[in-house]
Amino acid sequence: MDTDALRKSLADLNLEPLWERTEGGLRPAPAPDAPQIWRWADIEPLIGETISAVPMEMVERRVLTLKNPDPRRRYTTTTRSINCGLQILMPGETAPPHRHSPNALRVALAGEGGRTTVNGETYEMKRGDVILTPSWTSHAHSHAGSERVVWIDFLDVPLYRDLELIFFEVGGREPEAAVAAVGRAHQGPLPTGRFPWADVRTALLDAAADGEAVHEYVDPVIGDAALATLDCRARCFLPRNSHGNPPGHERRSSANSVCLVLEGEGETDFGDTVVRWRANDIFTVPHWRWHAHRAAGDAAAILMEVSDRPALRRLGMLSETERARSAP
Predict the structure, then answer these.
(1) pLDDT digits (tens, 9 = 90+) for 127-143
(2) Closest C-alpha among 76, 80, 79, 81 to residue 63
(3) Which of 117, 301, 99 shows the shortest CA–CA distance to 292?
(4) Dmax of the chain from CA atoms?
(5) Nearest-angstrom CA–CA distance, 146 and 111
(6) Banded pLDDT at 205 (limits 50, 70, 90)
(7) Following CA atoms 14, 19, 23, 24 in sequence, which dihedral angle do they give, to the nearest 10 degrees?
């Protein structure tokens, strides 16, 4: 049997020669994704247009998804494991209750008066506040303020989708099959459902005397990330040129991260490219890419970083390292 005949016989049995697919042997994975950035200056003018064109009577949620343009993405996702969207409500509008198997974490961006209700407990949404929506918790949104509100949703939808474990339900019914398939479901109020930004900001600035500080969002009840698959950190950077701080470190991780700029401006150096950012911009830090953040201007810069570290840590797949960065 010649090679072509063998290939056809294998294909008829849904078999594939590994040596051909890998061109002679197992090789390292393709290079990580390129970092992507969504600039608030570009997005904000379209928010008003979106409100006018898409009334809430037409949709369940008014959300703009942050789509990674990398052609390798099979679905509309922000990173390989995290999906993000900007959700918008006008005064008096509501987004009705639903629940789903993926976990979600929300950060308020603009406007006041927004509310998120999780398992019957209602939380305010002030700028920088983090609101948790663990797997299979019923949640709804409302707006009691006087101006539009915008927040960003971070979800682990790609992970659940790849595992074919997406379950979704409108309202508050509890079908036994879905609950059993999802696994542990949170009943009643959460141990910690909201992390106020005012408290975190004060702690960060107090700790940043040496040029950089990090605050990890940890549920005090369980002493770990509050969500099984997503964690959140806030990082503060002081302007190095005015504070005489050392050049700092660059890091890389097997985890994927999405960063939201809460205050100030700066840049992230990925070696082959530099991403410059300012308040309300959102950018990705792809897995296994060396990178270093730094502030620009005269004020501190604060990033909020959401990653899939907890999922990788629990699977024994988390690898992280850092090294001293040479002075520019």
Answers:
(1) 999 999 999 999 999 99
(2) 76
(3) 301
(4) 76
(5) 8
(6) confident
(7) 180
Nearest residue to 191 (alpha-carbon basis) of 220, 164, 215, 163: 220
% pLDDT > 90, the chain: 70
Query: 37-59: per-residue pLDDT in tens?
Result: 999 999 999 999 999 999 999 99
Cβ neighbours for 150, distance < 8 A, ≥ 6 positions apart:
47, 86, 87, 88, 109, 110, 111
What is the C-alpha to C-alpha distance for residues 38 and 283, in angstroms, rounded to an integer? Answer: 6
Query: Which amino acid, 297?
Result: G
- Mean pLDDT score of the chain, rounded to an integer? 87
Q: In this model, does residue 247 exceed pLDDT 90?
A: no
pTM of the model: 0.88
Contact criterion met (CB below 8 Å) for 229 and 250: no
The C-alpha angle with vertex 100 and arms to 223 and 283, in degrees rounded to 5, equals: 70
Say if residue 205 is exposed, middle or buried (CB neighbours under 10 Å; 0-12, 13-18, 19+).
middle
Q: Do residues 151 and 114 lie in contact, with contact meaning Cβ atoms separated by under 8 Å?
A: yes
3-state secondary structure of 68: coil
